[in-house]
Amino acid sequence: MIRIEADAWREMVAHAQAIYPNECCGAMLGAIEDGEKTVRIAWPLENAYNGARGSRYELRPEDLLRADREARGRNLDLVGIYHSHPDCDAYFSETDLKNSCPWYSFVVLSIRGGAFHHANSWLPDAEQTKAEREELTY
Amino acid sequence: MAKVLIPTPLRQYAGKHDSVELTGSTVGEVLTALTARHPDLRQQLYNSEGKLRSFVNVYLNDEDIRYLEKDATPVKDGDTVSIVPSIAGGSVAAPPEPAVALSSQALTKDEILRYSRHLIMPEVGTEGQLKLKAAKVLLVGTGGLGAPLGLYLAAAGVGRIGLVDFDVVDFTNLQRQVIHGTSDVGRKKLDSASDRMHEINPFVRIDKHEVALSSENALDILRDYDIVVDGTDNFPTRYLVNDACVLLGKPNVYGSIFRFEGQATVFAYEGGPCYRCLYPEPPPPGLVPSCAEGGVLGILPGTIGLIQATETVKLILGIGEPLVGRLLLYDALAMRFRELKLRRNPECPVCGDHPTVTKLIDYQQFCGIPQPHPEVSMTDDAGDIDPTDVKAKIDRGDNFVLIDVREPHEYQICSIPAAKLIPLGQLPQHLDELDRDIEIVAHCKSGMRSAKAVGLLKEAGFRARNMKGGILAWSDKVDPSVPKY
Fold this sequence. Notes:
- The complex is a heterodimer.
- Chain A is α/β, with parallel strands linked by helices.
- Chain A has helices spanning 6-19, 61-73, 94-98, and strands spanning 2-4, 25-33, 36-45, 57-58, 77-86, 105-112, 115-124, 131-134, 136-137.
- Chain A has an eight-stranded mixed sheet with strand order 8-7-6-5-2-3-1-9.
- Chain B has helices spanning 27-37, 40-45, 109-114, 116-119, 125-134, 146-156, 189-200, 218-223, 235-248, 275-278, 291-294, 300-317, 363-366, 387-396, 408-413, 448-459, 470-477, and strands at 2-5, 19-22, 56-60, 63-64, 80-85, 88-89, 136-140, 160-164, 205-209, 227-230, 252-258, 261-267, 326-331, 336-341, 400-404, 420-421, 439-443, 464-466.
- In chain B, the strands form three sheets. An eight-stranded mixed sheet of chain B has the order 9-8-7-10-11-12-13-14, sandwiched between helices. A five-stranded mixed sheet of chain B has the order 2-1-5-3-4, covered by helices on one side. In chain B, strands 16-15-17-18 form a four-stranded parallel sheet, with helices on both faces.
- In chain B, a hairpin with a 4-residue loop joins β13 (326-331) and β14.
- β4 of chain A pairs antiparallel with β6 of chain B, so a sheet runs across the interface.
């Protein structure tokens, strides 16, 4: 279960809408208590995919490393990654799965016509063969 | 000593430490020391072949060791080793099955809340809701009938809904096609409908088929669905949908509307009749007017579409008595429903005992709709006159008569000032009012009826021409203040 605090959620939606029609991506910083994740801060990162960014994203590991340091500096943890799917649903695509990491929650925001539509959170497995949907509140 | 930073999710495998101090002269040695001290980490970082998992990157301070000397990268006292996953993705390559319906064996907490009014009815219950979630329904057309169908089937939680349409929303649709809004005018009906349906229920998967259903594509499109719902407005497509459903063995939930009356039934259902058992032959072209020609009470498709939606949901749930072998007739003015018994015709060319139609045919030809072919053109295009030329004739004061062959209530909506109203049906009785020496130009709404009028006039010995595109074209080309309807 992952809960995104209001400010962080606003930041994520605003980021996804601003980057539309491209995909946005970013890190989610927060805390984990009793298996429940709370996102306090959304940390927008650059979509470093070298190609059409309307349907792909890539995070630079260096950026993620910095986000992790930022989290540690604030006594928070890196708990997840978010990205947007412009004009399609918030599913976990084959591309998402094959480039995922099982350690984090993956929040996908569906943006339709530039406006937020719906979101899902996913937990991929270590073998990158499937992702389970995680309960998401915001 | 080097410090290894442990990512949050891995700390549970590293004694809950956020970093671990280890000795080693290379990165490889440090990592070996790490997994020696915390063996549970091994499985997280390495695959079964003992290689670092594909998504695991190792950084020495700010550098990726892949660009240094990999495992052999020397480590000094005070260096920091970080484990950083590589992450990418994107919406391309949607999962083959609906991601939201990952499990059709269970309902999520959100779904339980959403469908609670279904779940508390024993006739539906969790079992029924899971049937709805697993169901695949194709809606042919997202117009008058498709609108209520799309809205309610999405709301009810039908897991996968296919839409077939290639049209664009226009203002004349809004009087009845309630799935589309004023701000959708000009958008593809598919986009407008699927947005609205997703707004109602984001858990539903929607497949958009932006095509005109044809003998070439129908079987491929219909094959993926359990139930087909016919919301079309023309005979060729109706026969096409019927035949394809019979050939594939899929129930065809049928509805049709005209002015104040509608019909509904379920065709091609185990042992039941098909559309051809009821209507073996299409009516001659032009005999049955379409909604665009004859009009339709805006509410009517709501009633009929919801009867179709009800039957669809019943078929999925397997409850009640399906509308099979019964043609439901609805008269909105009398507010009366009647039922006609229908039987499968053993002689039916498609679903009979000895079918002669075993593959899809040319339905345009079957319905007698002329193909674009110069010799068989219904109207003599050479005699047509453009609205701008009619305007020029009026302005020049040419000696000719412009007649409007529409109905009086249409004339009331809009008219061309110089035109004389003689409805097509009354034209034969009014021929003696017309002068055989003076050229006649006829117009109607879009040019179909006036083409018939011209044929009739020519037969009676008049010099007559058809105004191309009717008053709609007049509005486009001559006088935009004339409203379109």
